[in-house]
Structures are given as structure tokens and as C-alpha cells.
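I'm stuck. Protein, please.
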Amino acid sequence: MKLNDLRDNEGARKGRMRVGRGIGSGKGKTGGRGQKGQKSRSGVAIKGFEGGQMPLHMRLPKRGFNNPFGKDFAEVNIGMVQKFIDAKKIDAKKTVDHDALKAAGLARGGKDGVRLLGKGELKAKVQFKVAGASKGAIEAVEKAGGSVEVTAPKPAPSKAEGKAAAEGDKAEAK
């Protein structure tokens, strides 16, 4: 067999139908659109239209909220950390941070860092350096003899604090 002999199986590829090319083609005249009406013409957009009735997507109640200031943490349970330590994918002697968890394949995503959660059991003595941790996770790590250093980013100043700081800067400039 040669590369120039390679072919698709018979019927694997179907040619496109050329619409509106004469009566003999079987798709001539109206081009498979039926007769008259809005749908026979170009530029039709009636996906959610229900004849003037309130459309379903507008009748249903709105739910949820997307916080534009919400932080994106990769959530990691201490039980999974213990599993990865047992499998020798994480070195418990070194400080475990976002980079170490990412390299082990435990922390996916999380552009604002890692948040440690308390599900599972931790037996190894581990030093964590994470962006956030739950109370239960901190207790479990300290019970095992380890420590948790939380390096949470400073919250953005509120409007009142921002104005006070700006006025303070103006006073110093004078």
C-alpha cells in the first residue's frame, strides 16, 4: 500500500447539496424552503419567538449571581493531599504551596491561589503556604504537627476608606 492509494471508505464523505440550481436537481425553485412566509426568506431569526406571547426564557425566574470581584481559588482537600503524599507525588518535607500542588496535578486552575479544605484525614506533618484555608483544615494540619501559612491578598479598600486615603495624600502633598 502506498500513501497515494489511501482513500476514504465509499460513502464516508457526502458532497454538499447545491440548492436552487434548476428543477432537475430536486432542490430547484424554492430551494427546499417550502412556499412563501418568513421562513422562506433570508435573514430569519425566530428562535425564541412565541408569536408575541412572553417567551419561555423570559417567563422563567432568574437565579444566581456572578460576583465580578469574587476570587477564583483551586480547592484542595487535606485527604487528597495525604493520598498524594502516600503516592510520593508530593514531598511532605518541603513547604507545600500552589506550585507544588499544581505540579502534582492536585490543584487545577485557581488564578488567585489555593484554598485548603478540611475533608479527609491528614497524618503527615506538612507545612502549607496557601491563599486560604478553612478552620477545620487548619485544625487538622496543626493536629498532625504541621502548620498553615495563609497568604490571603489584601481586600480592596471600601469607598469610604479610599476617599479618606486620597484626602490624606492630598494633605501630605500640600
The chain has a mean pLDDT of 86. The radius of gyration is 31 Å.
